[in-house]
């Protein structure tokens, strides 16, 4: 994993992880970096670093080339108010600007995008953002505060995927353009990390005039924007072959310039679902990059003289979720027995070592991650037996369903390892492969929920989001039922109470202490078993330069260039 | 003939009604929640409810079915829950890719299968016949996706003769779309470079798809030729000194083609329903992929749309096949 040398946030996180800074110092510095709390109780604008503009003269005399990207996922839509799949975000980031960027490295540093300065009131309820006057949409119109307001309001109005987290903090009336370059957001609920939330929600800023000119039935232009762009980003859409090929062309006079020694003249997103074909495309030179490479192909790609595989670990955490509301897994001691029964080394070996094991509810990269969380569960048959003996199942004779996504061999491997171990206790594990929609449906209620499910979760690096979405009873005990992240149907009143206070606790020290306390309680209850963070393996031709791992499956094309002399 | 065509077209209606009822029922019985899937993992209850309302999924099932069929009669094929794209235009886009693949694979199948069949029948029980049997049995026995992967490795990765996957070179400007059939569009535009590129890209998928055609045509036509070659009129033709080549290609073929046409119609109809395995491995953006993805995501309206669309195509192909019979054998009436 490459550190961004311009990344002060990364340095602070590294110091914290390596013990050169304690938790209190870390949280203070992070709060200061994000704009901080005004000492005198008056809204103050943080002296934030404005978006860096890269001088054209810094570019080497390398002819820009088109990069062909072999992708595992199709781009269903470019509607900036709708979905947030990795493929959609990967392209939208290039076509649209956002208030902030975070692709500078890993852990993801929050950097200014369209924002030049931002600040927050002392109660963390009112946020003020100054927008650059340098940015222009692709049709030449300037990016103004009105477009920012429109973009956020339309996302909230549309009530689609992109609005999910945002709607908990903002409503349309709370977003106002104070002047042509200033946006004020007044939150429904104060939230000290709102700037980070905005950064990771990555709302594209849309050309309001163009969108409204193509509006149908008040959709803000959403239907038109499915395969067109109204952005100001470094690339523009030049060809859209649904289900096949999507082409972007560089905006030569992009307002922020190009950060590398050169830049790409265009990107072709080539949807190629078969992992074997993606690998072959890379090895044959047809693709310059291929994502979601299988770990079993890493050696072959590295052995090829023209290609290399980049292995990084982001925020895609795999959990064995136990149904805490029914069956044997409703007993906490039985869940602890399961957690101690899982042979982690066997799992690491099954994935050729390309895993990062988790220690608790939060993966590394999320503030509050604790590598020394207590309690932690390791493979310990003695302790497993102790906990099993505390339950009514000490003689076994029961069966459990292990549900996993059909076709995912790594999930199947996890189940088989557990199956093998549980046999020693006369417990049968039924391997139940299901399609993803079926699993989503099953996780709606405790009655339909499986005993154990192997599910991957991914959220922005905000600890409150991770903990609330997965462990708050409000995430499943509601009229529309639960989401797959809450498939353990966990309910602990004490934890619920703490989670309710988490976002409104603006003091960084108190917030950090709360995150630590919540994690300990959850870990003690063992509603799930955090297993591992999946490797993001990106294969690339060695002539591709400027790659910077930022925790995502894809790459930030704005930073890349091709140097065929290498 | 017009009455015949009219009667057959009317038959489409009960077929489609039956198909739609079965598809609708099955897609609703299968457990799963496509709305939650489309709404996203962090969707709030009001978002889920809005999406259900938008797609009419909060209404009783019979009402949903009737509303869908009513829309269909007005040319509205519905919308995908996951992409929000209209189903109709997407069906056309994906179908034209499948149509192109089917046409080229059928052409290849006939180009290879017919000579193999004639050779096999002509030199029955000798090495050409054994070779032909080996090819046709191999073509039908070996999994087509495995052949696709082997061809990718051999021809694309190792020899760099053909591309690995896809429909067109991503580094070349895509030709202007007139019909959606890339080879035809290239010809219309006079863009021979694009035609050449398109031909290179379609060769592996078309060859893989043609294997079934080759296998079945070779065996069927061989059997029919051997049957007809024993007939008296062949003996008379030989006795009259008609060259052997003409006997095989003109007299025998015309008589033997009836059953082959019937089978070809069935094969084309089958192929036009998409080839999900080939499309997946070789990344061909056909209707098989579209329908498969819709099925996996429980996206109701694309499932209905693709099933009914393919159903219409199969009925149309059957009609065309019957009409071609008449052309080949005037003795066949339109009763």
| Gyration radius over CA of chain B | 24 Å
Low-confidence spans of chain A: 1-26, 31-48
The overall pLDDT of chain B, averaged over residues, is 87
Taking pLDDT < 50 over at least 5 consecutive residues as the criterion, the unreliable ranges of chain B are: none
Overall geometry of chain A = globular
- Please provide the count of β strands of chain B: 0
Beta percentage of chain B is: under 5%
Q: Sum up the overall morphology of chain B in one term.
A: globular
Radius of gyration of chain A: 24 Å
Summarize model confidence as the mean pLDDT of chain A. Answer: 88
Oligomeric status: heterodimer
Percent of residues in helices of chain B? over 70%
Secondary structure: number of strands of chain A: 20
Which structural category fits the helices and strands of chain B? mainly alpha
The gist of it:
The complex is a heterodimer of chains A (566) and B (335). Chain A is built from 16 helices and 20 strands.
Structure description:
The complex is a heterodimer of chains A (566) and B (335). Chain A has 16 helices and 20 strands. Chain A is α+β, with helices and mostly antiparallel strands and 566 residues long. In chain A, helix 9 packs antiparallel against helix 11, helix 14 (463-471) runs antiparallel to helix 15 (493-502) and helix 15 (493-502) packs antiparallel against helix 16. Chain B has 14 helices and no strands. Chain B has helices at 2-29, 34-39, 45-54, 61-73, 87-122, 127-141, 144-158, 182-189, 192-228, 232-239, 244-272, 276-282, 287-296, 300-328. The relative contact order of chain B is 0.15.
Draw up the topology in text.
The complex is a heterodimer of chains A (566) and B (335).
Chain A: H1 8-17, H2 23-33, E1 44-45, E2 65-71, H3 86-95, E3 100-101, E4 111-112, E5 115-120, E6 126-131, H4 145-158, E7 175-179, E8 182-186, H5 194-201, H6 208-213, E9 235-241, E10 245-250, E11 264-271, H7 275-283, E12 289-290, H8 298-303, E13 307-322, H9 332-341, H10 344-350, E14 355-357, H11 381-389, E15 398-405, H12 409-422, E16 427-434, H13 436-442, E17 452-457, H14 463-471, H15 493-502, H16 508-525, E18 528-541, E19 544-545, E20 561-562
Parallel strand pairs in A: 2-11, 2-12, 15-16, 15-17
Antiparallel strand pairs in A: 1-5, 3-4, 5-6, 6-8, 7-8, 9-10, 10-11, 12-18, 13-17, 13-18, 14-18, 19-20
Chain B: H1 2-29, H2 34-39, H3 45-54, H4 61-73, H5 87-122, H6 127-141, H7 144-158, H8 182-189, H9 192-228, H10 232-239, H11 244-272, H12 276-282, H13 287-296, H14 300-328
Helix pairs in contact in B: 1-14, 5-6, 5-9, 5-11, 5-13, 6-9, 7-9, 7-12, 8-9, 9-11, 11-14, 12-13, 13-14
């Amino acid at each position: 994993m490459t550190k961004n040398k311009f990344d002060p946030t990364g340095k602070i996180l590294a110091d914290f992880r390596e013990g050169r800074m304690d938790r209190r110092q870390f949280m203070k510095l992070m709060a200061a970096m994000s704009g901080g709390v005004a000492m005198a109780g008056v809204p103050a604008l943080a002296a934030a670093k404005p978006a860096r503009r890269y001088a054209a003269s810094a570019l080497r005399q390398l002819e820009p080339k088109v990069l062909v990207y072999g992708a595992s996922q199709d781009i269903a839509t470019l509607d900036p108010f709708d979905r947030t799949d990795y493929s959609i975000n990967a392209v939208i980031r290039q076509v649209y600007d956002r208030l902030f960027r975070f692709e500078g490295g890993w852990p993801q540093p929050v950097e200014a995008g369209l924002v030049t300065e931002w600040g927050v009131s002392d109660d963390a309820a009112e946020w003020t953002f100054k927008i650059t006057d340098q940015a222009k949409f692709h049709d030449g119109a300037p990016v103004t505060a009105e477009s920012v307001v429109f973009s956020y309001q339309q996302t909230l109005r549309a009530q689609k995927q992109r609005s999910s987290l945002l709607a908990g903090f903002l409503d349309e009336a709370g977003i106002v353009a104070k002047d042509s370059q200033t946006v004020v957001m007044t939150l429904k609920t104060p939230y000290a990390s709102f700037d980070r939330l905005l950064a990771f929600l990555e709302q594209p800023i849309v050309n309001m005039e163009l969108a409204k000119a193509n509006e149908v039935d008040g959709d803000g232009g959403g239907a038109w924007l499915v395969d067109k762009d109204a952005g100001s980003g470094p690339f523009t859409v030049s060809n859209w072959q649904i289900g096949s090929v999507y082409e972007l062309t560089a905006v030569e006079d992009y307002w922020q310039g190009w950060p590398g020694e050169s830049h790409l003249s265009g990107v072709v997103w080539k949807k190629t679902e078969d992992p074997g074909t993606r690998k072959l495309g890379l090895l044959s030179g047809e693709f310059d990059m291929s994502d979601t490479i299988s770990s079993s192909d890493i050696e072959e790609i590295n052995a090829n003289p023209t290609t290399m595989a980049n292995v990084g670990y982001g925020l895609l955490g795999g959990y064995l979720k136990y149904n805490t509301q029914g069956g044997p897994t409703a007993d906490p001691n039985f869940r602890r027995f399961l957690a101690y029964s899982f042979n982690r080394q066997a799992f690491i070996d099954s994935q050729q070592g390309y895993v990062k094991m988790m220690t608790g509810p939060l993966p590394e990269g999320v503030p509050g991650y604790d590598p020394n969380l207590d309690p932690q569960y390791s493979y310990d048959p003695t302790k497993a037996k102790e906990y099993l003996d505390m339950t009514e199942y000490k003689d076994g004779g029961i069966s459990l369903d292990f549900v996993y996504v059909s076709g995912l061999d790594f999930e199947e491997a996890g189940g088989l390892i557990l199956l093998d171990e549980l046999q020693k206790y006369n417990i049968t594990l039924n391997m139940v492969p299901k399609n993803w929609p079926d699993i989503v449906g099953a996780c709606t209620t405790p009655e339909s929920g499986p005993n154990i499910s192997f599910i991957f979760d991914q959220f922005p690096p905000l600890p409150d989001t991770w903990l609330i979405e997965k462990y708050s009873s409000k995430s499943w005990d509601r009229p529309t039922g639960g989401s797959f992240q809450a498939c353990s149907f966990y309910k602990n009143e004490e934890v619920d109470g703490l989670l309710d206070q988490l976002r409104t606790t603006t003091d960084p020290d108190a917030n950090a202490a709360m995150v630590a306390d919540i994690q300990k309680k959850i870990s003690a209850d063992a509603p799930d078993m955090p297993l591992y963070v999946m490797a993001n393996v990106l294969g690339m031709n060695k002539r591709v330069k400027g790659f910077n791992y930022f925790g995502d499956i894809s790459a930030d094309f704005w930073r890349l260039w091709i140097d065929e002399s290498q | 003939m017009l009455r015949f065509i009219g009667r057959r077209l009317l038959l489409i209606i009960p077929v489609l009604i039956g198909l739609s009822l079965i598809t609708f029922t099955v897609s609703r019985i299968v457990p799963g929640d496509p709305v939650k899937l489309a709404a996203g993992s962090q969707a709030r209850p009001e978002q889920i409810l809005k999406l259900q309302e938008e797609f009419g999924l909060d209404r009783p099932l019979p009402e949903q079915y009737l509303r869908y069929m009513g829309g269909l009669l007005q040319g509205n094929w519905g919308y995908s829950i996951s992409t929000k794209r209209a189903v109709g235009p997407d069906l056309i886009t994906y179908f034209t890719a499948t149509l192109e693949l089917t046409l080229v694979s059928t052409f290849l199948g006939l180009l290879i299968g017919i000579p193999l069949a004639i050779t096999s029948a002509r030199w029955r029980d000798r090495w050409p016949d054994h070779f032909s049997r080996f090819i046709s049995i191999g073509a039908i026995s070996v999994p087509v996706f495995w052949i696709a992967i082997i061809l990718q490795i051999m021809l694309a990765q190792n020899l760099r003769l053909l591309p690995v996957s896809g429909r067109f070179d991503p580094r070349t400007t895509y030709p202007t779309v007139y019909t959606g059939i890339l080879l035809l569009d290239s010809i219309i535009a006079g863009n021979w470079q694009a035609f050449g590129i398109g031909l290179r890209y379609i060769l592996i998928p078309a060859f893989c798809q043609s294997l079934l055609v080759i296998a079945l045509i070779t065996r069927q036509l061989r059997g029919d030729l051997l049957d007809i070659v024993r007939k008296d009129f062949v003996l008379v033709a030989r006795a009259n000194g008609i060259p052997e080549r003409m006997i095989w290609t003109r007299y025998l073929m015309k008589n033997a083609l009836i059953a082959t046409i019937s089978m070809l119609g069935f094969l084309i109809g089958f192929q036009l329903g998409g080839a999900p395995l080939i499309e997946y491995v070789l990344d061909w953006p056909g209707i098989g992929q579209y329908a498969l993805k819709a099925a996996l995501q429980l996206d109701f309206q694309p499932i209905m749309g693709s099933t009914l669309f393919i159903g219409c195509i199969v009925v149309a192909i059957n009609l065309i096949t019957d009409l071609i019979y008449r052309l080949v054998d005037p003795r066949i009436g339109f009763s």
